User: Which sequence fits this backbone?
């Protein structure tokens, strides 16, 4: 059977003969490219790359780049199969590099990101773990080293794939103007992140309060810091906030914190008994420190109560401060009930200058009759 008609030209496109076989090759290669790109972004590919102990974000970036690269590769192959030759090594019009150099650039950049990630993991989990340095300082050193590897690697890759940095002078000037205006906040946050890593006012695991948000530091990234509140809400704070705003670090230095619990008791209560009961309630809590020991202050004679303040020291501020305060309140209420100490309601005196005040009785008829009989 003669199949020459498959390769016979059907029409001309851009000065090239297009045949039915070329169209079939174009459709087949494009379909194969879509299948490969879809597979590279699937969960199977992500799980396979995760076996190499790569970060989830890095895996997502790699799969996306590879899927785009596969789509470009099969598109160019499909165009060649159609009958329109595109040379892989020929420079792209208007650009001084070829398609082969672009693919090489993409592959080398992925390798640089991988080396940067592995450098951080190796330094933090193996090399510095037995150095005797503080764990947060080890993280700071690992992060800075990873950034240095990333920046140097990108420059080396660009220089060795035919993209000369001297040709980027005009582009660098435009980027500088953009940084001065639109990218000012990003640059400021990036520099603030380096200052945080070097000065270490906050570290991983610290309980901090900034801008009205209180949470535990989970990650210190190049532009922002991740906090997780006690309600398990993740909050992203720009690094600049930790530099130009007041920051309360409950874990910085000495973790001991003094808790103040205000308590009011009824007039006529035995104040010495009140003091002993409050100290006993605080001392029995396992999270209360014995040094400094709990103490009680007689604050004032209030309008309806004698006001005291229980002072207890604990290191629970960095873990569960509200739970500790709640436990103390429960213990104080229990101890007061056992000791017969009354916590009063607010009281007001009513003075009537003139007139008659009618007071309605809420007693039942049987109670009224019993009261009249007694009187």
Assistant:
């Amino acid at each position: 059977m003669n199949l020459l008609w498959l390769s016979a030209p059907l029409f001309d496109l851009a000065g090239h003969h297009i045949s039915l076989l070329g169209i079939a090759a174009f459709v087949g290669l494009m379909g194969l490219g879509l299948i490969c790109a879809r597979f590279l972004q699937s969960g199977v590919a992500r799980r396979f790359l995760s076996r190499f102990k790569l970060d989830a974000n890095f895996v997502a970036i790699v799969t996306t780049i590879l899927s785009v690269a596969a789509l470009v590769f099969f598109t160019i192959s499909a165009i060649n199969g159609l009958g329109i030759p595109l040379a892989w090594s020929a420079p792209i019009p208007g650009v001084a590099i070829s398609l082969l150099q672009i693919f090489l650039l993409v592959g080398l950049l992925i390798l640089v990101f991988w080396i940067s990630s592995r450098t951080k993991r190796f330094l933090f989990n193996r090399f510095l773990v037995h150095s005797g340095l503080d764990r947060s300082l080890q993280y700071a050193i690992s992060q800075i080293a990873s950034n240095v590897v990333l920046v140097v690697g990108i420059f080396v890759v660009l220089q060795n794939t035919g993209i000369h940095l001297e040709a980027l002078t005009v582009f660098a000037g435009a980027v500088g103007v953009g940084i001065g205006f639109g990218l000012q906040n990003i640059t400021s946050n990036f520099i603030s992140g380096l200052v945080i890593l070097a000065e270490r006012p906050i570290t991983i695991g610290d309980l901090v309060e900034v801008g009205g948000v209180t949470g535990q530091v989970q990650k210190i990234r190049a532009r922002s810091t991740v906090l997780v509140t006690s309600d398990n809400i993740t909050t992203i704070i720009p690094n600049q906030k930790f530099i130009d705003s007041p920051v309360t670090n409950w874990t910085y230095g000495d973790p001991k914190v003094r808790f103040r619990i205000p308590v009011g008791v009824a007039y006529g209560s035995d104040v010495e008994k009140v003091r002993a009961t409050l100290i006993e309630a605080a001392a029995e809590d396992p999270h209360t420190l014995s040094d400094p020991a709990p103490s009680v202050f007689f604050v004032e004679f209030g309008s309806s109560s004698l006001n005291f303040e229980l002072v207890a020291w604990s290191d629970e501020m960095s873990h569960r401060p509200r739970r500790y305060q709640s436990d103390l309140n429960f213990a104080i209420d229990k101890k007061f009930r056992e000791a017969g100490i009354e916590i009063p309601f607010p009281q007001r005196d009513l003075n009537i200058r003139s007139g008659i005040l009618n007071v309605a009785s809420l007693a039942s008829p049987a109670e009224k009759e019993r009261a009249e009989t007694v009187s």
Remarks:
- Residues 99-127 form the longest helix (29 residues).
- The chain is about 50% helix and 15% strand.
- The CA atoms of residues 177 and 183 lie 9 Å apart.
- The chain has three domains: 4-164, 179-249, 257-339.
